[in-house]
Amino acid sequence: DSFEDQDSFQASGQAAGQGEEEAFVHEDVDRLIRRWRNEKYAPEILPFDKDVIQNMSELLEFVAETLDGERNEGEGQDPHDPDFCLRNIDLERMRYVLRDYLRIRLWKLTRWPQHYLEPKNQDLLSAAERAFLSEYWDNKRLFLDNRLLTTIPPSKRALNEKLDFL
């Protein structure tokens, strides 16, 4: 059993004429898990998939609201109901995957900001990541200007890779 094969966000439904519960797995769950794994093990940032992230964010919000509604209306409900507990655990697991995916992307951006500021790499980023990266680099450059670069000779103060430090 792989991580992807474990069902996510089960919705109970009646199978045609059988009266059994049928598992439903949202297709974006598998896509997010695949993107998360790929991003985690790729040395460079991979293209951002806006549709998957938006769909999963909306889905997670909907599931959280549904579970909160069930918790609030079912005051006499057993808090240790296995179905309810498993759905909560699954919700938290998918929240973790989404957050970790975004965290990994931000970590890569902060490791090599100049590389991702190049025009050819801007297409890989979301609008929010581009804004974050631009602000991050501006703050880092100001910090370096104020703390480090003022102490070295003026000919060596530029922040680029084409310097000869010897």
UniProtKB/TrEMBL annotation:
Chain positions covered by the region annotation Disordered: 1-23
Iron-sulfur in keyword set: no
CDD domains: GINS_A_Sld5
Positions of the GINS subunit domain: 79-138
UniProt keyword list: DNA replication, Nucleus
SUPFAM superfamilies: GINS helical bundle-like
Top-level lineage group: Eukaryota
Biological process terms in GO annotation: DNA-templated DNA replication; double-strand break repair via break-induced replication
Pfam families for this protein: Sld5 (PF05916)
Location(s) in or outside the cell: Nucleus
Protein name per Swiss-Prot or TrEMBL: GINS subunit domain-containing protein
Organism for this UniProt entry: Polarella glacialis (Dinoflagellate)
Native organism taxonomy: Eukaryota, Sar, Alveolata, Dinophyceae, Suessiales
